[in-house]
Amino acid sequence: MLRNTLVVLLAVFTVTAKCELDTNIVPSMVGGSVSLEGQAPSVVSIRVPRQAPNAPETFCQGTIINLNHILTSCQCVHNETNNLINPAWFRIIAGDLNIVVPSYRRFSTTASHIYTHPGYTISPRTNDIAVMRTTTSFPAGHNTIDWAPRNTHVLRNGLPCVFFGWGAATVTGVLNPVQQSIPAPILERNDCNAANVHRGLVIDNMICAGSLAATPNVCTGNLGGGLFCPARNTFELTGILSFGLGCGTANIPGVYTQVRFFEQWINQQLTRTDATPAGTLVAS
Ligand SMILES: *[C@@H]1O[C@H](CO)[C@@H](O)[C@H](O)[C@H]1NC(C)=O
């Protein structure tokens, strides 16, 4: 679970940081802040090493939901021709803030099973959710690795949610090796569906968060990552990044698969024993 002592670092780049312990404050800052050790212990990096010299490298994120499962987006687990990528090819990295330079905290594993939502569509992007079972269980009682509780309630607009990740902060930016946190308050659905924003693509089982302004926000490499929202004494996994990679551009806020609409489906996947063969067409 996200530590309830979530500290929001109000730092612009490397300028002196100010510690803010009131999690109800929406940080009005430009740019992300470097995450603290153990601040988001359920956040993992998921990547598929290149299978051919010129093949694209899949780089995504996921969220630990129990000892051996993570949630991610469906688009993170299929290749360009919509075939399920072999689970064994995935590299799942937990416990480390810097994904380039491993620390002793790093826990790496791969996947044994991947279950994609049967209703997943690519255009428009809907039901973008997948459950990945790891080959090795995550360590229990670890300071920087833990599972996230999931939100099951309707949340108010403006709630100061947070996104954690390694994506670039600008269109041209290279992937940031150190995990950042980005404030992502919940946006009014109508604003998000406006003609100059997401044009009605944000349906009920999705949630929009971030900013309509040109501030650094989610970008390449963040897909599948979790939107975490404050709950009583913790932060809960509320969304899975599906589209809206603004990379600092105005009017492209992040759109997330809203996990509370998929509770039943998620729980059903956790006990499945059948395997979806690699190569299975997951969407048309
Ligand atoms: C996607 O995977 C399928 C089945 O494994 C394979 O035949 C196809 O060539 C792959 N497509 C790309 C673009 O890599």
Automatic annotation (TrEMBL):
One BP term from GO: proteolysis
Annotated CDD domains: Tryp_SPc
Gene3D superfamilies: Trypsin-like serine proteases (2.40.10.10)
Entry-linked SUPFAM superfamilies: Trypsin-like serine proteases
Keywords: Disulfide bond, Hydrolase, Membrane, Protease, Signal, Transmembrane
Residues in the signal sequence: 1-17
Gene Ontology MF term list: serine-type endopeptidase activity
UniProt domain Peptidase S1: residue ranges: 29-271
Family, similarity comment: Belongs to the peptidase S1 family. CLIP subfamily.
The protein, known as: Transmembrane protease serine 3
Gene: Tmprss3_1
